[in-house]
């Protein structure tokens, strides 16, 4: 039949039959639908070769490709592409894996530095213009690449278009609309359709839309009989393609190149898309993350929460959300064109650093909680280790140095080239966070098992708040909860909004573990606190033995026992208030409460007053010694004078008490302000009120 007659028949039939697009489906080579027919192969794993007439070899078939000693790069971001690639008879040692990534810090220029690029045809057409400028190897420096610079050797079928087997006649729809190159390319179907049409029309079997070699390959991957379109539909489709693109079985490569897009077409507004920052809809999830950090930092700095031991003794941990904010920005799609490999490596470093800071902070808090027990064994060592500077070195500098080693696996991310960079990063980040969460889960389970009797007898409130003023157990519970979030992120990986939502929850949970829950507790207690009642009742409470026991126990948990001990010591001195103050008493106070590991938190003015008094007492003692010596000499020689007798000024113990009493009392009241919300205090208070009403106490 004459081609023009076929075309007329095609137009008539296509006007008579409406083909539903739902019967068209693109399937991978290893996942064909047994109930549908193959229309044609619409994408291949291809070898793309730069066409250079001056080269001594001219590769036009796969057999020539495998027999040559060539420098090959494979770009295989999808699992099925990797499966196809592994079936090729290639020498793996001569093949380098790489990615088509936007932005700076590229390891290779795949269009310039390799003889052959192996990837899917559609992926190459979408991405190769990222590297559109030559660097002087194959193209002059700054000269643009275009599609016609390359020869496409189709190696293996990658995706196949299938149609409904019951459709006797099909209306085909292959676009031949050539996109304008005035703006950045958004639609990449045109060149793919041109190459598909050329491949089908120029193959040896002129009556079919799929060659026998491709068909046999598809049969190897699918365990059923593969159906083809009817001969009539195949002929109609070939005629349709010929009319759409003005090609035939005799078309030359020059005719094909004339249909392809010119070099001025681009997928980027700038070189390597470096400044093509595109804010996507999912990026709006960064806004609540920023708000969380801003609100957290405002309350941390302005609410007075930093004065609380539960935050003050965490040292660097409360400020870590500022670093994690960088983590969220670096992972945002909007910064894709920047140097992603460097961004991802720094993300890994900061994430590792934050994790190690938390781990070492918890270790230090555990050490400080047991310091009173350890102090008698190694006083000098404990005195050194418990200071602020050693604490910063242990929880800051040491994690920083260790992070270079522990985060070294993130350096390999740019070289994991058989997967997208984001995929490689997500695996590493998931492992890092997962290990931290697993540690938290193990710690809280071990704590429950070891202290199961205490948990059962004392209850949840006692164990989470009274027994643990630093809320470490709550931190461990939050870390355990994050394991659930990680599992959900894996389950909903197909939904980007779900991923960003769960990432925001994870970020909020991290803020809580850094001290957010301490701020919430502090603000809640501050709102409920009745300062007037506290001021008038605390001194009265301290006269009660049971209250002093509860207060002391809470001070031990909160690492502020030195305030309680100093308060008790000053009360004992009150019985000697009007006696003379001795230098030994001053030295004892200095050693036990103003220096060393259990230094009491008092103001600089109080310390200056103490040392001024100490100097006066030392002077008084020296004068007393001189006077005593003079009296002895006079009695021996019988010589004496009024001028040699120096009057001794005596200082009273009350002067020492008055320097520190109010400040130590203020410190204890501050601890009491947190203790008064615990169940232990409330229980004691009920009993105390009953006893007081009945004049028992």
From TrEMBL:
**What superkingdom heads the lineage?**
Eukaryota
Transmembrane segment boundaries: 284-307, 319-336, 342-363, 384-407, 427-450, 470-494, 500-524
Signal peptide location in the record? 1-20
* Keyword Hydrolase carried by entry: no
Query: What UniProt keywords are attached to this protein's entry?
Result: Membrane, Signal, Transmembrane, Transmembrane helix
Q: Which SUPFAM superfamilies match?
A: Regulator of G-protein signaling, RGS
Coiled-coil positions are: none
Report if keyword ATP-binding is assigned: no
Its protein name is Predicted protein
- In its UniProt entry, the species of origin is given as Naegleria gruberi (Amoeba)
């Amino acid at each position: 039949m004459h081609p023009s007659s076929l075309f007329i028949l095609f137009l008539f039939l296509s006007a008579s039959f409406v083909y539903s697009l739902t019967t068209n489906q693109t399937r991978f080579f290893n996942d064909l639908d047994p109930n549908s027919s193959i229309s044609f192969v619409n994408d291949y794993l291809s070898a793309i070769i730069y066409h250079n007439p001056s080269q001594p070899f001219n590769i036009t078939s796969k057999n020539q490709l495998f027999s040559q000693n060539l420098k090959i790069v494979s770009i295989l971001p999808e699992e099925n592409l990797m499966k196809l690639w592994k079936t090729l008879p290639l020498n793996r040692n001569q093949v380098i894996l790489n990615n088509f990534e936007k932005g700076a810090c590229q390891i290779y220029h795949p269009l310039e530095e390799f003889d052959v690029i192996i990837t899917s045809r559609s992926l190459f057409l979408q991405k190769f213009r990222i590297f559109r400028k030559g660097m002087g190897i194959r193209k002059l420096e700054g000269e643009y690449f275009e599609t016609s610079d390359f020869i496409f050797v189709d190696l293996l079928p990658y995706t196949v278009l299938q149609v409904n087997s019951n459709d006797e006649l099909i209306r085909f729809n292959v676009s031949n609309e050539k996109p304008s190159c005035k703006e950045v390319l958004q639609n990449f179907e045109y060149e793919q359709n041109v190459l598909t049409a050329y491949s089908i029309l120029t193959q040896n079997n002129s009556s079919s839309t799929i060659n026998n070699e491709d068909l046999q390959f598809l049969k190897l991957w699918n365990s059923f009989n593969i159906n083809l379109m009817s001969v009539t539909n195949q002929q109609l489709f070939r005629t349709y393609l010929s009319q759409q693109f003005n090609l035939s079985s005799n078309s030359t490569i020059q005719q094909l190149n004339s249909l392809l897009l010119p070099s001025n077409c681009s997928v980027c507004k700038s070189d390597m898309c470096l400044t093509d920052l595109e804010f996507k809809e999912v990026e709006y999830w960064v806004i609540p993350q920023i708000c969380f950090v801003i609100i957290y930092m405002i309350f941390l700095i302005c609410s007075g929460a930093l004065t609380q031991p539960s935050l003050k003794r965490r040292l660097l941990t409360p400020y870590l959300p500022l670093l994690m904010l960088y983590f969220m920005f670096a992972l945002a799609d909007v910064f894709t064109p920047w140097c992603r490999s460097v961004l991802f490596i720094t993300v890994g470093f900061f994430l590792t650093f934050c994790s190690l800071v938390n781990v070492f902070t918890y270790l230090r808090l555990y050490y400080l909680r047991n310091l009173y027990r350890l102090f008698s064994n190694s006083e000098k060592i404990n005195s050194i280790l418990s200071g602020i500077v050693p604490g910063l070195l242990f929880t800051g500098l040491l994690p920083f140095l260790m992070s270079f080693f522990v985060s070294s696996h993130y350096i390999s991310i740019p070289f994991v080239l058989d997967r997208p960079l984001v995929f490689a990063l997500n695996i590493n980040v998931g492992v890092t966070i997962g290990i931290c969460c697993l540690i938290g889960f193990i710690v809280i389970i071990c704590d429950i098992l070891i202290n199961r009797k205490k948990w059962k007898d004392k209850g949840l409130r006692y164990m989470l708040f009274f027994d643990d003023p630093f809320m470490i157990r709550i931190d461990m519970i939050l870390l355990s909860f994050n394991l659930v979030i990680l599992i959900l992120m894996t389950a909903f990986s197909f939904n980007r909004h779900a991923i960003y939502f769960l990432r925001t929850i994870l970020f909020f949970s991290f803020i809580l573990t850094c001290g957010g829950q301490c701020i919430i507790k502090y603000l809640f207690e501050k709102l409920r606190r009745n300062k007037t009642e506290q001021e008038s009742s605390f001194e009265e409470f301290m006269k009660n033995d049971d209250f002093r026991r509860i207060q002391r126990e809470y001070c031990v948990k909160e690492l502020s026992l030195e305030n309680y001990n100093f308060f008790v010591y000053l009360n004992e001195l009150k019985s000697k208030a009007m006696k003379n103050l001795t230098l030994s008493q001053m030295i004892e106070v200095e050693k036990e409460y103003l220096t060393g590991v259990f230094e009491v938190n008092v103001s600089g003015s109080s310390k200056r007053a103490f040392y001024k008094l100490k100097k006066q007492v030392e002077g008084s003692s020296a004068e007393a010694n001189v006077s005593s010596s003079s009296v002895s000499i006079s009695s021996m020689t019988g010589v004496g004078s009024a001028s040699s007798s120096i009057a001794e000024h005596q200082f009273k113990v009350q002067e020492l008490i008055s320097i520190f009493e109010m400040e130590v009392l203020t410190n204890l009241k501050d601890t009491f302000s947190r203790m008064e919300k615990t169940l232990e205090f409330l229980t004691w208070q009920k009993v105390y009120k009953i006893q007081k009403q009945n004049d028992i106490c």
